[in-house]
Each structure stands twice: as C-alpha cells, then as structure tokens.
C-alpha cells in the first residue's frame, strides 16, 4: 500500500491532458517538491505506464528494487573491458522523485519502467570527461541562465534559488513553474552527442508505451533538462501501433557489466561531501519531505543546536531567540513565505559566530568544506546533512563475491571484531594473510594490519591484524564485485587496474615506477602470481626512463629484497625480478655519474647507492654491469668536484664497502675540511650511509687495513673538528650531527669512547651522548661567551679577578 502523502503535498498535478498523451514531469534529483508533484500526478492520473529516467538494464529486477529497503540505497552499475573500467551510482532516497514514481506507480498498478541507457553505455562516457573536453554550448547556456535567474531573484546560489522558487514556495502552479524553469535552462542550445543519444533512446520507450496504453495516460518522469527535448521527440497523440519496446543494450563481447543494489548514506548524497548531482543537506530535505517547510526549519534549528551542545559549543536561549529572529527577518527580506534552509543556517551563523571567518559560509556556494572552516559551521553542515544510513532488505541478491568472501573468512576462522595473528611460514596462515590483504586492497573494512613484513628483506614471519569498525563494509563488498566473482580474481583485477592507471596517467616515469613498485609488493602479498609477472615486465621496461635516483632506489629495493629473501611468498630467485634488478642497478650508476650541482643531503640518492651496493654484493651474477665497472664509476663520482658532496661521500663509501678506497677516506676528509669545511658534514653523511661498518671498524677489510681503518678516520675527524674556527664549527655543526645520526646509539657510544681515550679521559661515553640541551645551542652559547670575553679584553673592561 502507498504511504501517506507527506506534508505539503497539495502541489497541483500537471494540467489535464488527453488520456492518450504522455504527461511529462521534469524534476530535479532528490527534490521533495518534485517528489510531491509526482506522487499527486500518479494519484490523480492513475497512468497505465510510469516511465522513469534510470538504467533500463534494471527493469528485469524492479521487484528487487521494491523489496522494502531502508532508504537511501543506490543502484551500483559497473563495466569493464580491456580499454576502460566504469562505475556509477544512482542514489534513491525517500524524497527522490524517481523513487516516488517507482513505488507509487507500482502501488496503483501501473507498469513501471526505467527508460535510460545503461550507465556503462558510451553515451555516458562523454559526460564523465572534463568540461574542457566537452561540447560547451549547453553548459554555457545553463551557467548564464542560472546566473541571470539568481540575479533576478536575489539568490546567492542555484540551491537557494531552487528553494525559493519550488521548495518553500506556494505549491499552486508548481508544474507550470518547473516547465518554465527547465525551458529557460535548456533553451535551444545543442545538447552533447551523449545526451542526444540518451534522449532518442528514452523517446523510443515513450512512443512504445503510448502504443500500448489503450487510452490511459503515460507518465514520464525525467531530469528537467531532458523534458523539453523528449516532448519534441515524441510529439502529441498516440505512439505508432507498431512501435516495439526498445532493446536493452548488452555489453560488447569480452566485456563485463552489471548492476547491484548497495546501501547508501545521507553523507554520500550531500553536495558538501562531493556529490554533484543532487541537493545539499539531505537531512534538512528529509524533514521538509516528512513535515513541511515550517516544521523542517524548526527541526533543522533543533538539530544544529543539539549537535553544537553535544560538542560543548555554548548555545544559550538568547542565542536561539536571536537566530530565529534573524532567520525570519532574512526570509522576509528575501521574499520567502517561510524560512528556507539558507535562512535558518544564515540566522544561526549570525547569532553564534562573533569572529571573522577565514572561509565563506559553505552554503553560499558549492563544493566540499575547506580547511580552516569554523567548528560551529562544520557542525551546522553536519546537522543539515544528517546521519541516516540505508539498509538493504535481507532477501536482496548479492554478487558472487560477497558469498566467496564469507566462505574464505569462515575457512580462515576470521571473526569480526577479533584480532587475527597469521604465521606466514604455515600454509594456512599464509592463505589467511592473502585473504586479508586482498580485502585491504579492495577497500573492504574489517581488519587493519598492525605489524608484519614491509619488504621482502624483513625477518618477520607473523602478521597481526586488528579489528576496525566495519563502516560501509556491505556496500564496499558489493561494489568490489565489479572486479570479479572470486576474491583472488577481484584483487588481481584491481591491482591490474592500478598498474594500468599508473601507465596511462601521463605522470612522469619517476612517479609511475613508484606506483608500480607499490603495486608489485601488494601483488606479492595477495599472491597474484600472474599479475606479478606482468608488473615485472612493465617495471623492467620503464626503469630506463626514470630521471631521479630516489624512485629508482624504491624499485631496486623492492625487487632486490624480493629476489633475495622472499621464500615465504615464493618469489625468491625469480628471473623476472632479476631483470628488474639488472635494469635498476645500471640506471642508478648512470644517473649518479651525471648528477651535478645541489647541496644538502638527499636520502633518496644515498639509498639508491646503498641498494646498488647490496645488489653488487649479493646478486653480482645477475648484473650486466660488472663489479669492476661499478667501482670504477664510483671512483669517478667520488673525485668529481661538481658532484654533490653527499654523493661524493657515498661513492667513496660504496668503494670502501666493496673492499677498495678505504685508504682515501682520511685524505679526502682533510682536503675537504681545508677547502670547503661547510661541505664536510654532507660528505660524511654519504660516506657513513654506505660504509658505516667500515668507519667503526666492524666490517673494514679495505686497503686501509681491518680494524685500523675505522679508528684512523675517527681520529682524523677529531683533529679536523678540533682545529675548526668557531665560525666554521657553528656553520658545519648541523650537517655533522646529521651525518653521525646514521650510526645507531651503540656505535655512537663506541666513537665517544674512542674520543675519551684520545684525550686520556675517564668517564661515561654514554653521558656524552645524553646532553640535557641542544648541542647546537650549547655551541652557540660558548661562541657568544668567547665573543663577549674578547670585547671585554679589547676595551679593558674585565677585572683582574675575572681575567684570572
């Protein structure tokens, strides 16, 4: 049985038409005023057919749509072929005119049909393109028409204009005002080809319905933009007796497409959250639909106040009186018969906000909330949005993926709300890990990984997954069904889409390989073997175009670690990984030798040389670049005065860590301190990053001797720093501190012990590393004291006792 018509339903139905004609109602999506008009028209006309703008491929499943869900819900449609992937949502809430047309039409016994092309159809592709790439005639006319209307009626935005003309206006003559409004917006501008194709398809449905109506009305409910064109395309009178029902387009061979119902929420419907096709503030319009304009204004005021007080934002009775008075005054000044949404919100803002705002009030325009929005304004927007979340009827069919995920989780004994620990060395634990990673990749809430391996080199063989609130889990599962019927298939397709998007984005190769490197590790975690092979081929072919050392380092580190260590996931020693390693090592040395200029320490380039050194140590047989050639390249970089100081130090450190060049370290350090002391810290950072063990004598086997090589450099650095002038020391101290930060605490303590020994001092080396103040501040204070002392001496102001 149809529900009682909401308050304010006295809107006139469209003017009486001959029974054998189509009755058109142009609507705005999610407009309570339009929904009331549709409801009254259905009750008055009792049409044979109710035709609604919506995907025609859902017609066979309208019973599913009318099961008795808790709205809002949405029709989620998906399409995928080798060239593109497309997804779309058609939301429906209580006051959506399309929903009212479907439910009320069904209740009075009318034949209800969706009449638009499926949303995967190419006609919709043009509408998704950026505005600059679309035919601009219609858009330009719409913008100019709405600008003039807003100016004529004194409204700041299209939403405020709509409220004034339709939502809070006298319902008498609503149908005629809507027709006039949409005629002005559409005018005679040429529609885009995609819209033309849709309108011609919808007109075929209308003509076919008229041919079968047997003298009863046919009600057509579509977006108001399309109504003038549909009237012209269908003309007047009966449809041709031979007009067939239009066929529903099928996805082309090899493509996958379909539609499912998903839960939706008021937040997703709200334009302040980014939804551009409907009305803002769905919580307010729900009140308007249920209670009428006066009660909706009072209800919005109450909800805002309740939310503000719940956030401990003070709102007094006097504030409420002031807000209501302001809203009523604004409504009268703006020519509104009752307070509209913007009247209430402007009144609240005027009464509650006393300080200047950094951002305009969000309802004075469109778009998402920006950073710096006043907290009270944020709460006003949230209250007007509402927190309603839809729920599907239990009998609603779900895509196969939903059932596969349930079976997989049951097999792994994963229980919602409980912590999961997986042992990656156990086949069952590895399978559970892959299931959870696949769900993570698809954005399906339930568990988040707190610990586990982050690279193939991690000596970690367990993962811990903690439960998280499953917000949006049901909708996310259904939407993920667009990728495949099984969880492993869906994850592989999603990964492949990420990889293709990176390649087709037009981003620089540096950014592209960074994304592909992340996709590769995710593919390994998910067990997507075939995808890994595809990715590895793409990575190997793209590494040669990378222009920066940092991104090259990320690719090389991922591939090398997986090739060396990843027996858990089964890719250790993979020949395709070996190809990526080979390409990346060659690229690192080529880029490093050509890098000139710049200052400071770049962790990305130091990491690149460190990972290349590891490849030379552990994967020498894979590489086209021989160790001898690599060491010779490093020698040239270390001696190149045009190269950045940190890169020169790293190049020397690479040679030293590979068994040669250690005898050069002391001489180069002294030479640099004499010529460019400000570069010493950066040079040491590079050296320590690549040859930390050799410097401390742990792993030194180079030309300078074993354990003797490290301390000799430490001794030389002690002499160099001690001999620095105060100015040079202060200038170089930050970089020196950064360089020694490459040593872990125990190794820094060993260096401090060596410094104490050189000075024949006894004491705790550890205490030297635990100062209560910033060493840089201490050095500056000492320099200041010395300067003051010199000034006092110069002018004879110090007493003899002070001099002593």
Number of beta-strand segments: 10
Which word captures the global form? elongated
- Tell me the Rg in angstroms: 36 Å
Q: Class by helix and strand content?
A: alpha/beta
Helix content: 40-55%
- Main pleated-sheet profile: 4 strands, parallel
Strand content is: 5-15%
* Unreliable residue runs: 1-5, 128-137, 699-711
The count of helical stretches stands at 34
Q: What's the end-to-end separation, in Å?
A: 105 Å
Q: Enumerate the strands of the largest sheet in spatial order, edge to edge or round the barrel.
A: 1-6-2-5
Overall pLDDT: 82
Describe the protein in words.
- Helix 22 packs parallel to helix 24.
- This protein is 54% helix and 8% strand.
- The chain has 34 helices and 10 strands.
- It has 804 residues and is of the alpha/beta class.
- Strands 1-6-2-5 form a 4-stranded parallel sheet, sandwiched between helices. Strands 4-3-7 form a 3-stranded antiparallel sheet, with helices on one face. Strands 8-10-9 form a 3-stranded antiparallel sheet, covered by helices on one side.
How is the secondary structure organized here?
Blueprint: E1 22-27, H1 32-45, E2 49-55, H2 62-65, E3 73-80, E4 85-92, H3 97-107, E5 111-116, H4 125-128, H5 137-153, H6 158-167, H7 174-186, H8 193-212, E6 218-223, H9 227-234, E7 256-263, H10 266-269, H11 282-291, H12 293-310, H13 317-333, H14 341-352, H15 375-385, H16 400-411, E8 420-423, H17 427-441, E9 447-451, E10 462-467, H18 473-480, H19 487-504, H20 509-526, H21 529-542, H22 549-565, H23 575-593, H24 603-618, H25 627-638, H26 645-657, H27 665-675, H28 680-696, H29 709-723, H30 726-740, H31 745-758, H32 765-768, H33 775-794, H34 800-803
Parallel strand pairs: 1-6, 2-5, 2-6
Antiparallel strand pairs: 3-4, 3-7, 8-10, 9-10
